Amino acid sequence: MKMNTGMCIGALGAYVAAIMPNLRSRRIRSDVVYYAHRGLHDNQSDAPENSMRAFARACDAGYGIEMDVQLTKDSQPVVFHDNTLRRVCSADGQVSDYTYQELQQFTLYGTDQKIPLLADVLKLVNGRVPLIIEYKYKDFNNQVCVESDRLLRDYKGIYCIESFQPWALVWYRRHRPEIVRGQLSMNFQRQEGNYRLECLAIRHLLTNFLARPDFIAYDQRDKKAVSKNICRRIFGCPSVAWTVKSTRQLEHCRKYYDYFIFEGFCP
Hints:
Layout (H helix, E strand, L loop, with lengths): L1 H18 L14 E4 L14 H10 L2 E8 L5 E3 L6 H4 L10 H4 L14 H8 L5 E5 L7 H10 L6 E5 L2 H10 L5 E5 L2 H5 L4 H7 L4 H4 L3 E5 L6 H8 L5 E6 L2 H7 L5 E4 L5
Parallel strand pairs: 1-2, 1-9, 2-4, 4-5, 5-6, 6-7, 7-8, 8-9
Antiparallel strand pairs: 2-3
Helix pairs in contact: 2-5
């Protein structure tokens, strides 16, 4: 019995050590708590997701902006969510199959909007609202962090970074520790039927000992996730809800989160 108790205590201690965030966790340096998911967009309008027009609308409304960054074939950081072009551009292939110039042949949801460069989005926003920048990883390659950081070093506005991939946070912890970094997570098993070991570890935030995130961005459908709530309530680590799609959802998850990424309505 003593051995079993000791093993349980040891396992609990290892778990707590694994999920521990940055104990000097820094909040997103802004009073803004609402962030427009991929800009203040409507895919049935002339301001589709991750478009310059959607970002301009968010700035005009005073909302923060969440956006996705990945690399083109010629290593240009562009703002686009999916790996493939099919859903948004009705085209074949992946973003990384094309150079930036080649991508300009495609439009977003049939509008006049095209896949923007991160550099152009930064010029448009120009510090007017805070940014949450999600890095889309491919093949565990840190190059998206390296190339994006070249631009962000000269950006004067408020921003933080986040990623599902802990290695992005590890890169920032090593090379840009002053930048606020967040671990994205969700219940991959319930929401996507994904039972890979990597996803199980990220779901339970077991990679935090490597990344030491400053905040946790978690699927709002899983607001009672144990590891996320331990980080928030015990360690004081801020929590970001994604993606809130109605006033009702916002009210249901408000007490579990500190910041909110929204779409489809205006809080």
